[in-house]
Design brief:
six-stranded antiparallel β-sheet, single chain, 6 helices, SH3 type barrels, 316 residues, three-stranded antiparallel β-sheet, alpha+beta, 19 strands, 21% helix
């Protein structure tokens, strides 16, 4: 976790403000302003007035420098200017706020807010300041937010509470608090809690779906439905599929009984699958009925004629 960034720029026991006051009072230090500025011992915008340089020339030896202190004490101290906090670009990286933070325009408590970043939102740190702020940028709901935020705050108990963690530390702080495995029909769920931000995340795992394999089959017939039973290899659930009856397949008409001279025959239409009789048809007899009737009439007439002739002969 990132520690609070507090800078203490000093020269011996002096603060930046004290060094700047001394340089402004004693022109002897004027030639060394660039060195002091590059060393971070004075603020970047600090300048020594030309009057200070001309009034207090640089001493040629230590005794001269010490002697000038008496004159300097009588001079009126220059008004201390409020400096901007120094920024250190080496303090950078990917961080995550562990609490909701307010981003401000400048690195001070009175600066105007430019937005709020919820806890758990990744931010990019581009610099740190010497008064405990970080310069950062983040995207919240599609909006770019750039500004400053304090590294830490003090709670009601007077304790320092750090507001940021590195992305690595934040990631390892997740703990799984609930894990329900998915089944064939029900979704699973994983609940995780971040120990740093106390944010809870819930992940839904899709149901697995059944994995069926055929375990039984009854073939359909012409008149009866078939059945396929499949069993899930995961949970044992059974799925029954009905296979519709095939229906008869009509074949060709075939003679089942030949027709006789005086008797009818029979033709049948059968199914090619189960040989069931689907339809029948009579075959007419060889001699038509009317011919039989006529024949019978003729025979009867002949018989009657013979009988009459025979009777006449007996009378004679």
């Amino acid at each position: 976790m990132r520690l609070a960034m507090q800078y203490s720029i000093s020269a011996g026991c002096l603060t930046v403000a004290q060094i700047e006051t001394a340089v402004a009072q004693y022109g002897a230090f004027a030639p060394y302003v660039e060195y002091l500025r590059s060393a971070g011992l004075v603020s970047p915008g600090f300048q020594v007035s030309s009057s200070s340089q001309s009034t207090n020339p640089a001493p040629s030896n230590p005794s001269a420098a010490s002697g000038s202190s008496t004159d300097a004490s009588s001079q009126t101290p220059a008004k201390e200017e409020q400096r901007e906090p120094a920024e250190d670009p080496s303090i950078s990286g990917e961080d995550v706020p562990v609490k909701e933070i307010t981003v401000v325009e400048k690195p001070n408590d009175s600066a105007e807010s430019v937005g709020t970043i919820p806890a758990g939102t990744p931010v990019t740190v581009t610099a740190g300041t010497d008064n405990g702020y970080m310069k950062l940028e983040a995207t919240v709901n599609g909006t770019e937010i750039t500004g400053y935020a304090p590294v830490s705050v003090t709670n009601d108990d007077g304790e320092t509470v750090e507001l940021f963690a590195t992305d690595v530390d934040y990631e390892v702080a997740w703990e799984e608090t609930k894990n329900v495995e998915p089944t064939c029909e029900d979704e699973g769920i994983i609940v995780r809690l971040n120990a740093l931000s106390e944010i809870e995340e819930e992940e839904t795992i899709p149901a697995l779906g059944h994995d069926y394999e055929e375990t039984s089959r009854t073939e359909p017939t012409c008149t009866e439905d078939g059945e396929i039973i499949s069993t899930c290899t995961v949970c044992g659930d059974e799925q029954i599929e009905t296979v519709p009856a095939l229906g008869h397949d009509e074949g060709e008409w075939a003679t089942a009984k030949d027709a006789g001279v005086f008797t009818k025959g029979l033709r049948e239409l059968r199914c090619t699958r189960d040989d069931a009789v689907l339809d029948t048809e009579e075959i007419p007899q060889i001699v038509p009925v009317w011919a039989v009737v006529v024949g019978c009439v003729i025979v009867a007439g002949v018989v009657a004629l013979i009988f009459v002739v025979a009777s006449e002969r007996k009378r004679k």
